[in-house]
Amino acid sequence: MKGDRRIALLDRDGTLIIDKIYLADPSGVEFAPTAIEGLKLLRDAGARFILITNQSGIARGLFSEKALAAVHQRLREMLADEGLALDAIYDCPHGPTDNCRCRKPAPGLIEDAMADFGFAPKEAVFIGDGEGDMAAADACGVKGFRVAPGAAPDFLAAARRAVDYFEAGGAKERQCM
Range of 75's domain? Predict the structure, then answer.
């Protein structure tokens, strides 16, 4: 039922997994500290998960779409081992100077997820580690929780804040700008 859904939009590198800088090898996937505990907390609060990630290594020629798919397949397998799952993965393969609509801080990936899954901004949160993550979320009226010094110290702390936000009923509905 609309208004009752809970969607956790998740950044990948530096948030869900340890940032290995242009990760192209599936064996390098390693969860960030407290990520699994935070995901389980969110899942138990009724959240579904959608990954939103910039992957400019493709545009830079550092790895292929096939390599990215292998990394994401490994991530899905590791999550499944923990009883968790991603509903979708949205990635931007463009570089920082490509002026695309999908590279965070642009809101394109979030807009696509909202259109595909039919959720309102107040039904979602975005957990990420960068200013671009927060800017993309803000552009769509989605509440952002940053994993960074001076904000949430780790994924679990951000997840706790997200659950509190959901329990409080979200925010006023806004549209992407």
Answer: 6-167
